[in-house]
TrEMBL record:
PANTHER family: AMINO ACID TRANSPORTER, AMINO ACID TRANSPORTER TRANSMEMBRANE DOMAIN-CONTAINING PROTEIN
Gene Ontology MF terms in the entry: L-amino acid transmembrane transporter activity
Protein name: Amino acid transporter transmembrane domain-containing protein
GO annotation, cellular component aspect: vacuolar membrane
Localization terms from the record: Membrane
UniProt biased composition (Low complexity): 1-16
Source species: Panicum hallii var. hallii
Region (Disordered): 1-24
Main subcellular localisation: membrane
Cited InterPro entries: AA_transpt_TM
Amino acid sequence: MAAATTTTGAGDNNADLPPPPSSASDKTGFLKTCFNGVNALSGIGLLSIPYALSQGGWSSLAVFLAIAVICCYTGILLQRCMDASALVTTYPDIGALAFGRRGRLAVAAFMYLELYLVAVDFLILEGDNLHKLFPGAGFRLGGLRVGAKQGFVLAATLAVLPTTWFSSLGVLAYAAAGGALASVVLIAAVMWVAVFDGVGFHERGRLAHWAGMPSAVSLYSFCFSGHAVFPMIYNGMKDRKRFPMVLFICFVVSTLSYGFMGVIGYLMYGDALMSQVTLNLPPGKVSSKVAIYTTLVNPLTKYALVVAPIAEAVEAALGVRKSRLLCVLVRTALVVGTAVVALAVPFFADVVALTGALLSCTATMLLPSLCYLRVRAKLGYKKPWLETAACVVIAAVGTAIVVLGTYSSVKQIVQRLK
């Protein structure tokens, strides 16, 4: 999933969104648009993709490729919905165009809940990887014993809290744009561990693991959830006719990077893979530390970007956007809430799988297909049977993933909490 989904909309006035580029000079060219798209699709899914492959086995790579193709196609469906009306600039606008106010609220609700869980994933990730570096860093707080992992989640929460208090996130946006570069560094560091630090590629893995397939599919869905920012990217293009080509390039690059990381991780550690591949890396090696520190930096820079749309929507709903103090309190409450969830359910893979199955899959498969079919019907467009069949099949596949993946993820979380 893209961690930089920072321009999701809510409310009829889209008050939480930056205005679209006002002139041709403000719009982006082809290459920059491709970079923005890759950055939208790159994220913490890179860490969990080897674990996903170990859950489903080698045969699940076919499902992974199918999900990539489907998500690329549904991105084009969003473009077609936007072309239907000049008033449509955000994903919730597409929901409103298709199903009215209820459609807007449904799309916004799924998007904001997804962003909230991504913020939770960030804190869990920080706690897990810092605990890997400093396993004995527990402490006592009064009469309460705080474990190392829990302490690092609290430390990460305190670190990101001040960054959420600012309404202007321009500086952080530039920092978060390094996500694509961080992904390259992470892959290179893991490769170095395998080739030069003695781990090698000795595991054969399994052809199929049907019991773990729902988790694998859910994690794969999480990797390609960039649809929330596709409308912004489309609006910012100088030549919108090239948007399908942009999507194609972005999905090819992302699929190759995710797939490469998944394959090398599975060959390195097989069924012994943990929820994040960095947790398997040998301690003490410089390459391992590079991988882990790269992993740690990204969430710290992107956390505020993820939380900002939720905060601005809550502030608008409460009518407190003019009060600096109340805005700070709202944002602090949101951060504290994510920390509480991260401490209560500190299971990275299961939370990511739940996010992917219930929310990402809904945003990337179900909603685009249903919205496009509805918009096409309302506007009286021609109805090619092949296109209709594709949308119906995608909606059916999305529904199956939502049901099976959500059930599997919730079951795993409940079992771990016992």
